């Protein structure tokens, strides 16, 4: 075999030089090559520029998607907060309406009981047990009255304050007035019928007697 043929065979048998995989590696390879080929370098730079353009475009698209995702997340969060607030308001209104309905029903029941309470109150002040049998009846009567009072308290019913307190037209019904120099003007002197309230809401005003001051003879003569 001739020498030239041997050299060609050896060159063919030699492993091919690995081609750089990325444009940047190809540019680096072209710059480091012993025989700098301008065309190869130009082509590699063009590929690198194109790759940079693709990367910038991908980054821009990723940024747009991120902004869109942030907007979607913000919108979803805003909707969640509004729905949560609406639900809290609904739950609060439901509680308030339920409480108002309960108080209304209780008030209606108590109004039906008030005539019975009035009769108990009247009888309690008038009954005078003189015999042992009458005392037993009175004790049973008072026990029943106490049970009714305890029941009303358990329902949240409160008696309206009267004797010794200032007259309040919102809770008192003045059916009598009496002159008094020992009490401030407009003081409740006596209770004729109890008033009741439930949950701060008046069920029935109390019937009362109210004081008023009179000018004495000395004050009249001075005028």
TrEMBL record:
- Bias type Low complexity, positions: 1-21
Annotated Gene3D superfamilies: 3.90.20.20, Head domain of nucleotide exchange factor GrpE
Gene Ontology terms: biological process: protein folding
Using the record for this protein, list the coiled-coil segments as residue ranges, or answer none.
31-86
Question: Which portions of the sequence form the region Disordered?
Answer: 1-23
Q: Which GO terms describe its molecular function?
A: adenyl-nucleotide exchange factor activity; protein homodimerization activity; protein-folding chaperone binding; unfolded protein binding
Q: What does this protein do?
A: Essential component of the PAM complex, a complex required for the translocation of transit peptide-containing proteins from the inner membrane into the mitochondrial matrix in an ATP-dependent manner.
**Record protein name field:** GrpE protein homolog
Q: Which organism is it from?
A: Chlamydomonas schloesseri
